[in-house]
Structures are given as structure tokens and as C-alpha cells.
Hints:
Layout: E1 3-4, H1 19-29, E2 33-39, H2 59-72, E3 78-85, H3 89-99, E4 106-109, H4 130-145, H5 164-181, E5 185-188, H6 189-193, H7 201-210, E6 213-217, H8 224-227, H9 229-242, E7 245-246
Parallel strand pairs: 1-2, 2-3, 3-4, 5-6, 6-7
Helix pairs in contact: 4-5, 5-7
Amino acid sequence: xxxxxxTHTSRCGHARGTDREYVERAIEAGFDVLGFSDHCPxxxxxxxxxxxxxRDTDVDGYFSSLTDLKKEYADDIxxxxxxxxxxxPALIEAQDRLLADYPLDYMIMGxxxxxxxxxxxxxxxxxxxxxxxxxxxDRIIEGMDSGRxxxxxxxxxxxFTGSAEAYEEHYTRLCQFLKDKDIPVEINMLGxxxxxxxxxxxxxxxxxxxxxxxxxxxxxxxxxxxSDTSVMKVGQAFADLMKLELVESLSGLD
Length: 254
């Protein structure tokens, strides 16, 4: 595995380590490419302050630090500056204004909420409500159709416990859309190594049947996760088990 595009920083409030430590651990592990994609801030009109993503006041420091590291380590590794974000139409314009003047390389979608976090339900909570699953898939499709995001992080984050028929219908619909757009689905290594409900063999059997490509995302929240070679081996083994074609790097970032 030569590239990882799913890397967080301490600014999100639930990761630790310095930006430099992430870079040096990636170099130690032999990565050619490291993309930072910390949880993107939203501008909440009601003054809500999120505890799980960087604040808008952190954006300057994020780009300044990573731009300096890009230059310092240019001979050792290619660095990209990105964000992981939900697609929430009501907040998109304010987010675009916030980021307009920064050298953003890419974004990935991580649909943790269907609606603004201050009044939304976290998608990782088990639910048997088909309406939530339908809205989750609809929102992802709408967001991906906007062209804002390079791939879908932890596509199976929504822990649907309802009927097997509904699961098959809506996730097949999602996978078919992503295949048609040539957008890979992520094998999320944080979920796998922490024994979460994702990545789910049930979801990836659908992805295999539809013909989706996959990408391994470390979802690193500590620097050491990048240098643990067992993480990459487990991800590759899962892809082999599911018989998925892997995308090793994202094109068109330069």
C-alpha cells in the first residue's frame, strides 16, 4: 500500500499526535503519498460548537502547518491537504465560503450525519428504520453527484438492523451509482482494527456483485496507526477475501 488519503489530526478533538509525527510515521512505513483529511468544520448559524471536528478558527493553522510540511518533506513523501466531510445541503454554502481561499487538494465524504450535527442522528447507531437508510443513500448520491468528493469513506457506517431486503435494495442502489461514477468505496481500517460493525462483509458482498472498486483508508487518528504494517496487510486480505479490485492512488490531484 503506497498511499493513504484518510488521516486526521488532533484538531478534531478525538485524535492525537502532531502533524509532523503523522508524516514521519508514514515515511517510516514506506508510503509514497499521505493525504490529510481531518473532519471539516461547519459554520453553524445557531452558534453550535462541535466536539468532533475542527473549528473554523483552526483552518488557518491546518493549512499553514501542512503546507510547511509539504515543502520540508518534498523529497521523502507527497503530501495532500484535504478534508473528510458530510454532504449537508443547508450548510454547504457557508462551508464553501470558509474554504474558498485555501489550497484544498481534495475532499472525501464521510456521512456521519444526514442533517446538521446539532439536530442530527449519528449514522453509526443501530437502526431498523428504512427511512433513515433511504435518506442516507439519497444524501450520499446527491453529494457525490455534486463532484465535491473523491471517494466514500466507511460506506457501511449506517448500522442498519432492519429487513435484509431493504438493506440489499438501498445499498445495491448506492453501489450501482458509485460504480457508474467510478467512485471507489473505502475499506476502513480504523473500523476493522477496532472491531466496529464496519467494514461489513454483507455490504462488500453487494459491492463485489455490482463491481465496485475499493480503496483502503487507514482513518488514522494516531500517528502509530500509519506505521503498523499489520493494518495494511489486514486491509489487503479483506480485499482479497471479497475479491475486490483495489484503487491504490487517486489520480488528478496535482
